[in-house]
Amino acid sequence: MASLSLGGLSVNRGGGGGSSSSCKKSLNARNAAVERRNLITVCRFSVKTLIDRSCFETIDDSSPEFNNFAAILEQILSHRLKGQVTWFGYESPRSFWDYIRVACRKVSQNCICSIENMENVSSSRAKGRAWIRVALMEKHLSEYISTALRDFKTTRRFYEDGAIVLGEEANMLAGMLLGLNAIDFSFCLKGEGLDGNFPAVIDYTPYLKFTQSSDSISSDEEELRTLGSSGSESSTPENIGPPFIMDENSWYNKCKRVKQKYQLTLEQKGYLEELLRLRENQLAESVSQNKLLLQRIEDSDLTHKLEKEQLEYIIVELQDQLKSFQSLDQLSAEVSLSQTSLGPAHSQDGDGKQDMLNLLSEGKEDTPSLLGLCGSLTSVASYKSLTSLKSSDYLASPTTEMTSPGLTPS
């Protein structure tokens, strides 16, 4: 039995079937973990670049940041997606749209039916790409993904073990997509660029950055120049000048870009300061208007309180007058009954009582305090209501009732 050692990894030849199978499983697990980590990391970077780019321009189909993000999301949702088994037992490839269509039916006011009924989008892959754009414009992409991931039974039916949507990275995916709700997207869904059987390719170059090790002796420029010019005439001392010139040009371009960014930031700062000044003036005006309204409300409350007290006092006066009028009515009725029962012998006493009643009624009608209160009313409606109450049957003069034909003594 021979063994081969490659960088710490020993591979046995012959008689080691169990060891090789376990090594293969561990290698597959490692590859799957690295693949998941790469996709989640690059998705986080793409979301950040989208948010940064949206501060300066509108994100549409022509934006390279969006195209890269759409490719990354398509790769994540297609990671370890099960194929569709046909009648003959073969497994045909399927798109992630088949999973989204089933798992996102529970989302309120979803766009699944609208995507299905699109005439210019035919293939399943194109419908999935159209769904990504519509969900971004509706600002519901994170909600769709969260709802689909909560349906674990459907997710397990569509994906194999080791898929991103079945691992711990799924929760991270739904969380990082939530930041895209702050971006206003604008897409054209005419089908151009959506159809196509080829998978989307991720561009990793915007997110790659080389960091020099602290143990390195020479600089990056010297190492690259040495590696690129080894064994050639350009490595001689007299030919070392051009790389430094290119390096100076690159530094000049960097300085120019930094200056442009500084000018843009300065303009934005001036705009924001002017906007802040305008908002402060509007706030001060709103505060002053609010104070005036509060003062008016306080004055109105005070006026209403005074009117209420006056009306309550008038009501008490009217109730007292009504009680006195009722007592006068009873007294006049008693006088009438006594006159009819006693006859003309006591007519003189009845006339005296009648004169006394007339004097009392005239005194009550001309109460000066009540007339003063009536004059203190501030509204015409209150005065009219008091006049109607005074002229009603309850405030009728007892003298008129006594002088009516039905109550005159016989």
TrEMBL record:
Gene3D superfamilies: 1.20.58.900. It comes from the Eukaryota. Residues 227-238 have a biased composition (Polar residues). InterPro entries: Run_dom, Run_dom_sf, RUN_RUNDC3B, RUNDC3A_B. Residues 60-192 form the RUN domain. The keyword Coiled coil applies. Residues 219-242 are annotated as: Disordered. The keyword Coiled coil applies. Keywords: Coiled coil. Interacts with RAP2A. Belongs to the RUNDC3 family. This is RUN domain-containing protein 3B. It comes from Sarcophilus harrisii (Tasmanian devil). The lineage of its organism: Eukaryota, Metazoa, Chordata, Craniata, Vertebrata. The gene is RUNDC3B.
